[in-house]
Amino acid sequence: MARKKISKTGVSSTARSRVTLNPKLARRSFLKLSAATAALSGAAMTAKMTGKANAAQAANDMYPDSQMVRSVCTHCAVGCGINAEVNNGVWVRQEVAADHPVSRGAYCCKGASAIDMVTSPQRLKSPMKRVNGKWQTLSWDQAMDEISAKLTEIRDTDGPDALHFNGSAKVSTEMAYLQRKFAAFWGSNNIDHQARI
Ligand code: SF4
Q: Does the global pTM surpass 0.90?
């Protein structure tokens, strides 16, 4: 029985002759394959672009009667521009204000998530108190009673300067004004903005 010759590469001469390609055919196949690949890539790209366009159109169609309201982020004093999309009185989406003179179409992560202050399911809606490591919801009256009793106790025991009032980057100018007034009526100058610490 004739034995097949095996080359050093482990491929028989018969097998090698089967896989050796005619250069002309190989070139033609290569060109065909390239053309097919290009056509497929083009089709895939077109499909992708069409998908994006459809998604953008669907997003546009979601609130056909909405209005774009110019606003600013209130998280800090920079006041970056926000274009707030309002539908039927509800803030539904936001975009950067590309023509804002300060932020010029950008904002930080706080501004980017500004709408969450309104729509996030995790938004804090009532006072909370931690009791034995667990958070409990309080009524506003209960929270006011407990906090004012504690503050009065501190002032009676250690004087008004035993307290430090801390401002916040998240409050408005009006709220900051009220904080300052409250500290003054309390009897202390111990007030500053949280950014300084
Ligand atoms: S987007 Fe950031 S930098 Fe701009 S106002 Fe809001 S918090 Fe300040």
A: no
